[in-house]
Amino acid sequence: MPVYEYTALDIKGKSVTGIIDADSASAARQKLRVSKTFPTSIKETASAENRVEKGRASVASMFSRVKPADLSMMTRQLATLVGAGFPLVSALDALIPQTRSKFFKKIMAQIKDAIVEGNSFAAALSHYPGVFSVLYINMVRAGETSGTLEVVLEQLADITEKQQALKGRIRAALAYPVLMLCIGTLVLFLLLTFIVPTITSIFTDMNQVLPAPTRFLIAISGFFKSFWWMILICIALMLAGISSAKKTAGGRYVFDKAVLMLPLFGPISRKLSVARFARTLGSLLKNGVTMLTAMEIVRNIAGNKLISKAIDDATQEVSKGQGLGVSLGISKVFPDLAIQMIQVGEQSGELEQMLEKMSTVYENEAEASILSMTSLLEPLMILCMGVIMGFIVLSICLPIFEMNQLVG
After folding, report:
1. Distances (CA, A) of 329 to 297, 304, 332, 343
2. From 9-23, 86-100, 210-224, 281-295, the region with the lowest mean pLDDT
3. Residue at 324 is within a domain
4. What pLDDT, in 10s, does the model give residues 143-177?
């Protein structure tokens, strides 16, 4: 069924815009008039014949603009409507006008049309992998199969909201140190490139040996003044090289392994990956997904190639009849506490609950580690900036002090 984009006037004469699906433009106008909305312009944006092709080719760029918060809100509202007894198509039809994102409205309308044409909800979602993750699609498929779609949607909303809340707290904790680092680096760059050479130029005509700190400062500032453009190019090339290497399987593996070996960021990254693994695996198992299928899904969303390989190796061991905890412990990638919690969950028959507790533990530990690290970074950055600025001031003042002594 085609999808139309319209501009109309409501009964109060206020201009409104939106999208609507109908068999034809005239049917869309009639449908709007029935709802006491009077269209002034209407045009087709998608049709049943080219929906999937256009969705795969051009809608991918739209997905990048769909905010996770919008997806989480839609999931929560859809779970509420389905749980209240609304048919899935009716629930989607009610949510489309309430969606703020114009692109997301089009996607939801196309998903609704696919369901009307006989596709399952999971199959309709699978056409848009840029918005709906492998986890999202597989959990919806499990919910449809077991008849517990509303429960699955509630859990998906919980997972998305918790992940967004954790990301928000981490961003808030890192915002000030990152801002200080950027501003401090910019100030030092401008100081060494433009201001210090102007001040130290008065020492070039002096017929006396300058102090070692002053000579060092003049050399550094001269290098920055002459080759500042080269420094920027080298930084850009380095970032581009890292980005290109991360797109290859080998490069991404080496990068992720290096991240886990970093003294401060490594343990935090490991905890976040383990928390994501535990929460996702627990949710999948709770909704009836088999262990091997669930392991395949979490392998793709672990966020670290080294951990993904450990999960992949563990999947092969589990398929041979080995326990999950023992299988994950072979790689030595997962923390010992995580392995022990999984083994306790397996022995007690409450693996899903234990995985959820494990995810909460490691999310809290990661957040605490980030807060502790940022509390140390702030005074350390201030101290470093103070030492550098003090060195610059001292290097400039030393020749002046020596000239005063000679005059005296």
Report:
1. 19, 17, 5, 10
2. 9-23
3. no
4. 787 777 887 888 788 878 877 887 787 788 788 88
Helix (H) / strand (E) element for 41: namely strand 38-46
Q: Which two tokens stand for residue 374?
A: 């940022």
**Confidence tier at 342 by pLDDT (50, 70, 90):** very high
**Token pair of 230, please?**
């080269």
Please tell me what DSSP assigns to residue 202: G
Q: How many structural domains are present in the chain?
A: 1
Query: Is residue 143 within 8 Å of 151, Cβ to Cβ?
Result: yes
What pLDDT does 289 receive?
Answer: 78
For residue 16, what are the β-bridge partners?
Answer: 8
The answer to the question of residue 32 being in a domain is yes
Asked if residue 8 lies in contact with residue 34, where contact means CB atoms within 8 angstroms, the answer is no
Mean pLDDT score across all residues of the chain: 81
Q: Which long-range contacts (CB under 8 A, 24 or more apart) does 227-231 make?
A: 228/189, 228/193
| Assessment of whether the complete model's pTM goes beyond 0.70 | no
The DSSP string of 342-365 is HHHHHHHT-HHHHHHHHHHHHHHH
d(CA 333, CA 233): 37
Residue 28 lies in a domain: yes
Bridge-based pairing of strands 15-21 and 38-46 is unpaired
Q: Is residue 19 part of a domain?
A: yes
Domain extent at residue 14:
1-47
